[in-house]
Amino acid sequence: MSIFRFQSATESAFLKRSHAPSAIRAWLIDMLCWPARFEDPQAEREFTEDYGRRFADFRRAALVLGTLIWVCFGFWEISLAQTSAVFRPYFPEVFAFRCAGALGASVGIVLAFKLEFHRDKVAHWILLSGLAFMCFCLLMQTVLAPRPFNFTHFFVGYYLILFYLFGFLRLRAKATLMLTVCVIAVIVMTQLVTRSVEPDNFAAGMFYLLNVAVLGHSVNVNAERHVRDRYVAVQALAHSNDALQSANAELAQKHHDLERARRDQQTKSEALIALREQQRETAEQASRAKSRFLAAAAHDLRQPMHALNLFLAAADEALDARDVEASSKLIGEARKASVLTARLFNAVLDLSKLESGHVDPSYTSVDLSRVTEETVAQLASFAASRGVVLRYAKALQRPAWVRTDADWIPRVLSNLIANGIKYSDPAKAGRSTVLVGLVRMPNYVRLDVLDNGIGIAPEHWDAIFQPFVQLGNPERDREKGLGLGLSIVNAVVSLLEGHRLELKSIEGHGSRFSVRMPVADQFALQDVTLPPTEAASPSSSLLRGLYVLLVEDDSLVRASMEALFARWGVLSDSVRSAAELNDLLQSIERVPDLVISDYRLPEMSTAHDVIRLLGEHVARPVPCLVVTGEAVASTQGVLPERCVLSKPLSPDLLIARMLELTEASTRAS
């Protein structure tokens, strides 16, 4: 907002000429000097526009009122002509100028309503032109009227015109002063030429006329100064209001931002609280699930271990009584209990590894058709023992290559087929069937295992994938399985990328388990042979003559392994630590065919140190089998998963893995 200075254009000159006291000089300046224009041209234009809009209606009303008064004086002239014989001869000419003035005022009224009268320049042009014309008409009436009527009845009309000029029309002081000076000059010149008014009357009339002009100009100056001051105040107030509104808007925006931030913070806090609550609930659920899992595992482990202890105690008593047949039978039953314990331990460890995320899948191209055919062949005898027909619907004699883990996918297939066999419907004796088939699609291969067994009710579809859940087996009969097969299947499929497990079942009619696997890259195909599983029963005679180094720190485990090796005809040397192995490798005369080692060994050494010592002392590669009791053995990058077995393990699996590694080493050499 510009700073306006209200000072007369003639103020400086007036101050230089004046020798009066400063108070009188200031008063005269304040009373008589018209306000100066604003220094900023834009501010002056805005002021004149505002000035014209503000007083447009007032000026129109004053113009109409002045016209009515002018017309009323015409009626007075008509009355004067009727009563005065002296004035009557001059009436026509005088009244003609009265009519001319009324006509000019009417034109001014029309222009005030037709043109852009709200513009200050247009209003000044119409009003000043109209006043000048009416002054001319009044001057002509004064000249034409006889004495003393021209002074007493017409000359006084100049006072009314000046009153309107200075007081009613709200014209600016400079313009009204210029018009007043011109009118007075014309009146004086006309009097000097025509001598129409008596000199004494003219002098008195001019004295009053000048006083009216001075007073009117003073009033007009103060009125304009007041309007300008008010305009500045209004503009300053508007500027303050704008600043206040801007501040209020900014404050409102800040308040809005603060409120939004508060709501966001509250939302985040509530979300954090909900997340913590959810995490706490999840942790509690996981803890309860783990507790239930451990309780169920402990319960299921107690049963075969309890039976194992009782069978061994009974066999010991039979041996004391020299009842060899009874003791042999009891030891066989104890072995069954031991195998069941080992299977349960290994299943629990497998599930624990899968759910803990410590299993990293090794993806390769696998011929699913061949794996399925070999798995079906391995489980055929088990199906026959249950009276179940196991069939592989091989539609096409060509491979079905998929991208999967070659170690885990056979176990998935084996568990699904075994599950269908175990849950065959007794009411369908002789008709129980498990059908295995492959469905080839452009992007995936679907493995289907269908059975016509007892089926699963929809409300149990989620429960069957939980550990130790077995429908229709409340007595926990181990002959019907451990209750971990489907849990392992679900965990493996969830772990493998691009794999999906589906279930469809009708209670009393059977079930269909389907596993979708992504198609392998046709340019990276390789044949993968299904490794031996627990279903195979290799002969220990194939191990006779092998030389094995055993590294085991547990004396009980070492003694049991040495006893097995002796029974199988395996030559062996055993040590308890990597240091003892180092000494042994320096003195042996025969390169071992196989090294079997625990993972965790004394003196902070591991199976890695065993492999390192073999590389340092033996010229050719020697296969190494790690048998560990840890859930996760960190041999990744050193040994393949096939070379790691978890304790406890069955002798059949140990024989199979030993044969696999030694035969592979023989082929490689």
TrEMBL record:
Keyword Transcription carried by entry: no
Regions that span the bilayer: 61-82, 94-113, 125-145, 151-169, 176-193
EC primary class: transferase
Reactions this protein catalyses: ATP + protein L-histidine = ADP + protein N-phospho-L-histidine
Pfam family of the protein (one): HisKA
Stretches of the chain forming a coiled coil according to its record: 241-278
PANTHER family membership: HISTIDINE KINASE 1 (PTHR43711:SF1), TWO-COMPONENT HISTIDINE KINASE (PTHR43711)
Name of the protein this chain belongs to: histidine kinase
Source species: Paraburkholderia hiiakae
